[in-house]
Design a protein that fits this description.
Layout: H1 3-34, H2 37-66, H3 75-84, H4 97-115, H5 123-155
Length: 157
């Protein structure tokens, strides 16, 4: 994948992530108004999708610029940490340490969702994750748009 294509892919994923975030916000508000647990299921699914979207972006960056994905049972965590680090002579850090924290929470939540029934989720814990995701998303979005601009500048050289 060339630089301009990678930059465009990042922007496309961010558009989809923005839509998923809007669904999280709406689902959370409906769950609170109605006390209907089915909305919590939708919120959980969309939180899962949000992390998966970020991981797709990071996978494309790792494969296109970094030379490959990390390996091992904990490759998801290693990929997240890889995105926090500058690769000398190749690229700046993709995300800040602050952003990595929320993404790591979402990564762990995604693992939880894959291994439990949604009716066993703690609504209070889910609410905290929803609020922190909504709060941090503008920074996540800005950092990835800045990285896309960096990648695009590479393609224009």
């Amino acid at each position: 994948m060339k630089a301009n294509a990678l930059a465009e892919r990042i922007r496309q994923e961010l558009n989809d992530l923005n839509r998923a975030l809007a669904r999280i916000k709406e689902g959370w508000e409906r769950a609170r108004r109605s006390n209907d647990d089915y909305y919590l299921d939708a919120v959980a699914l969309n939180l899962h999708s949000v992390y998966s979207g970020f991981e797709r972006i990071f996978t494309h960056i790792a494969e296109t610029i970094d030379g490959g994905l990390p390996s091992g049972d904990n490759w998801h965590l290693l990929l997240l940490r890889q995105m926090k680090k500058e690769v000398a002579g190749m690229r700046p850090a993709v995300i800040s340490s602050e952003v990595e924290e929320i993404l790591d929470e979402l990564r762990r939540f995604r693992h939880l969702i894959r291994n439990v029934y949604t009716h066993n989720l703690d609504p209070e814990r889910l609410g905290k994750l929803v609020l922190s995701t909504l709060e941090k998303f503008p920074q996540l979005n800005a950092e990835l748009l800045a990285f896309a601009a960096f990648v695009e500048s590479l393609g224009n050289q």
